Amino acid sequence: MRPFEFQRAASESEAIAAGAAGARYLAGGTTLVDLMREEVETPEKIVDINRLPLNYIRATDEAIVIGALARMSEVAANQDVRRLQPLIPETLTEGASPQLRNVASIGGNLLQRVRCPYFRMLDAPCNKRVPGSGCSAIDGLNAGHAILGTSEHCVATHPSDLAVSLVALGAMLSLKGPRGERTIPVEELFRLPESTPHLEHTLEPGELIVEVHIPNGPYARKARYLKVRDRSSYEFALVSAAAALHVENGIIKEVRIAAGGVGTRPWRMNAVEQALVGKPAARASYEIAAAVSTEETRPLSHNGFKVKLLPATIVRALEMAGDVA
Predict the structure, then answer these.
(1) Which of 302, 298, 305, 261 lies closest to 139, judged by CA?
(2) Sequence-distant (≥ 6) Cβ neighbours of residue 60 within 8 angstroms
């Protein structure tokens, strides 16, 4: 690890000023510290933001509001979250080991870096680490890589399980930065790689994620997360699906679906949703709709299995959501 300057921010304005000047924010540090040890990331200045008053969970009639510094374990155990947004604690539990959940923050989870092995290999070309150097995964070992939203410059999947479920639930982010406050959908936080894969999110220099707002829609209580992986614990998704259903008299009135492990960002399944509205909440409907999820896929040499696994995962997630009492 290379030497760096360290600062503890006493206020949001102090943190924002330091971030705008190029400092990196530190919350749980479960990604950043690892990357610094491996010298994949070499920031000159770190700003600890853990003293900021952003560790809270509030339930309102309209939404669950979570401060960006709330720890994953705290959110997963919160009774209001478990009652109103059961998809969130299920996803958090699937997303990391207990030790990591005790440390990792909600805001940091959304901004974690990719787990492509070539990103961490300093002797391998990687456009995320060194823009313009190339993408080793395209012709390399790519079984865990993306089949949606890829470019000739990057095929890495976005790693956050939580982001998938927040996209499915239509969650919003409150941000605060040098130019003031703004609110964006979680879905708009993440960039496609295109020709600039080193730019992974839409935050401006110095912007902080302050809160996550998760609306209490009628679909929110009838939702499930399914994660398919190589092993049953502490592993990233090969394919995952978050499905939320609003069903009346056996007919789907509203449905929201997002997938992970397949896209360069959490992937909203808009076409699948459109194919389901007004249809019976039954496996036959799910299978017909899920078939359209693969229309824009671009498999690589080792991850073609994801093309078949994606619709099957969506179907099973919908079945699981439909079984929620």
Answers:
(1) 302
(2) none
| Dist. CA 247–CA 250, nearest whole Å | 6
Alpha-helical (H) ranges within 104-194 are 106-110, 161-168
Task: For 173-229, write each residue's pLDDT tens digit.
Answer: 999 999 999 999 999 999 999 999 999 999 999 999 999 999 998 999 999 999 999
Taking the C-alpha atoms of residue 199 and residue 207, their distance in angstroms, rounded to an integer, is 15
Query: 255 — phi, psi (to 5°)?
Result: -150, 140
User: Rounded to whole angstroms, how far apart are CA atoms 230 and 120?
Assistant: 21
CB 278 within 8 A of CB 247: no
The pLDDT, as a whole number, for residue 226 is 97
In 3D, which of 127, 129, 183 has the Cα closest to residue 154? 127
Structure tokens belonging to residue 258:
């997002």
Q: How far is Cα 236 from Cα 164, in angstroms, rounded to an integer? A: 13
Please check whether residue 39 is in contact with residue 7, taking contact to mean a CB–CB distance below 8 angstroms.
Answer: no
DSSP class per residue in 79-124: HHHHHH-THHHHHHHHHS-HHHHHH-BHHHHHTPPP--GGGG-TTS
Domains of the chain: 5-50 (3.30.43.10), 223-322 (3.30.390.50)
